[in-house]
Amino acid sequence: MPRPARGDGGRGHPAPTGTPAPTLPPTATPRPPKDLVVCVGAEPADLYLYGDDSIAATAVRHALYESPVTSLGYEYQALALEKLPSLADGDALVQTVEVAEGDLVITAAGELAPLGQGTTVVDAAGQTVIYDGQPIAMSQLVVDYTFHPLIWSDGTPVTADDSVFSFEVARDRTTPRHDTQARYTAAYEATGERSVRWTGLPGYLDPAFMTHVWPPLPRHQLGDFAPAELPALDEAARAPLSYGAFVVESWTAGESIRLVPNPAYYRAAEGLPHLTSLTFRFLEQRPRGLPDGYEGCHVLTSDVLAFDALTAVDAAVAEGELVEYVASAGVIEQIIFGIDPSATFEATHTPWFADTRVRQAVTQCIDRQALVDEFTAGRSTVMDTFVPPDHTLLPADLPQWPYDPAAANALLDETGLLDNNGDGVRESIGATRVFSITLGTVAGDPLREELNARVRDNLAACGIQVNPYTLDAGTWFAPGPSGAVFGRKFDLAQFAWLSRIQPDCGLYLTANIPGPLDQGFNGWDGVNVAGWSNEAYDAACGRALSLLPGQDGYVEAHQEAMRLFATELPAVPLFSRLRLAATTPDVLNFRLDPTQPSELWNAFELDMTPGGAP
């Protein structure tokens, strides 16, 4: 296919041109100006769909490319799609396919590999089998998506082929941002003018299957360029065509990006977007305070407001200048028990936490509400299991272990751990060892060091001597067997796991205990660093991970795993870290959500009260 005529002085790319704007209906009535200023923590490197993925770049792109699917409240919702695919509606289905030697599959261990002699897979009946040269029937997900009647800002209709083009770019090895989902895709094809179909590799049963759709890129504009060329094109990175609510009007380096409404927006007849302009200004985050120049901002995003700026934001709220928004940051703080430490560690340390009652007592000894009050200003909530308290799958009947030193001491007495000599510290049965343990965390994090000091003081009241220590991140999180965490060489370890939309019960499966292959483990890359093993939990979590949302038993299996965790406590769940954003009182429809990383996900419906200005 011939390339467009060049006017670039020999640089090899067409000269950037302005985006043609469709003509507004002659009856359109001018709206009162509503010019919203959003202040972000950095200037985006680019707006290329597969380029810079910073919070700032993502925020701007949400206004340009309406996401096919968004994620709010630990669930998914259709946005640029007509509906969210589901097994119940039949636009997502699990089919049975026959695979033979050389076919790409997802193995029983979750790895992408060609099927070959000795490869272990899960067959269509849910049985783990080893390939011996005979074809195997495996399960394969097929999902159909239909886009709304979107229109590019140059007036060209968005087609299913534009989404296919985006997929082709995303999976290209030269594209800057690696796309994991493209690797697990057997086929992605247009099935109609606005409909596409995703087919996963055999064995890939992803509970987030409804998200395997690629935001369109304009093939008619960019299709003659190689994917490696796109990041340098102004048409892709600085002033891309838009099918969302806004289009780029100008970009002043070091200062701001100004967007204006896209007249071709498919919801324009509904009066959307409400704003007459949307400007992103670039400010630097200031520790413990509001950024310099914030007075001109209507929205302060979470990348420009560190959570320790809460006191300053609260003061501005009290003055009526700002409205505060707080949500989980998806970072779950916890203290992991060394239930079954590695053999080298156990040779010199007593494994105090093999008894569930000891773990329950330690949990009741820690005043977790006081930690929430101190380290999140009371904005977070004490956790009972491995998902946040606002997760939609959380069961109502979780076991809870509130702060109760008297009950904790009674439990410890029951286990035979007694203070035999009256010195305030318990000893093992037979009084051969003092209940003295270490509590480690990564160095250079004042919050974690202060948190561990509070835990030390709490546990002293239960006769447990705690010695906090820190290690540099390279040593603390080094792979096993040398690393402290992943080498299972600790009494208590304080660090955070990331929380996702789908509950991650696999963090505590027996199969995920890190350890040497010659001792029956699956290697040192496991994540169950507590060494906890529980058959009932493994069964519940295994069922949960084998099912998809909408299938019978999916919710029940996840909830049973949460209950078992909350009872057995391989870790003390503490609280979720928070992120902070703020707006001026005149901003409407702003939503900060725990599972949506960008505050601008709904740029199309952001609004302002008439005449409101900071």
Q: How does this model look, in words?
A:
This protein is α+β, with helices and mostly antiparallel strands. The chain has three domains: 32-66 and 244-322 and 584-614, D-Maltodextrin-Binding Protein, domain 2; 74-223, Alpha-Beta Complex (Dipeptide-binding Protein, domain 1); 329-577, Roll (Dipeptide-binding Protein, domain 3), CATH 3.10.105.10. 20% of the residues lie in helices and 21% in strands. It contains 14 helices and 22 strands. It has helices at residues 55-64, 160-171, 180-183, 219-222, 234-237, 310-318, 343-346, 356-365, 368-375, 405-414, 446-460, 473-476, 535-546, 554-568, and strands at residues 35-40, 69-72, 75-78, 92-99, 104-106, 112-114, 120-122, 128-130, 136-146, 185-190, 195-200, 246-252, 256-261, 277-282, 299-300, 323-337, 436-442, 465-471, 492-498, 571-583, 587-588, 607-608. Helix 11 (446-460) links the parallel strand 17 and strand 18. The protein is globular. The two termini are 52 Å apart.
Morphology? globular
Look at the structure and give the CATH class of the largest domain.
Alpha Beta
Output the CATH homologous superfamily of the largest domain.
Answer: Dipeptide-binding Protein, Domain 3
What's the Cα radius of gyration? 27 Å
Percent strand equals: 15-25%
Number of strands: 22
Strand order of the largest sheet: 12-13-14-1-15-20-16-19-17-18
For the termini, the CA-CA separation is 52 Å
Mean pLDDT: 93
Count of the domains: 3
CATH architecture of the largest domain: Roll
Unreliable stretches (pLDDT < 50, length at least 5) are 1-28
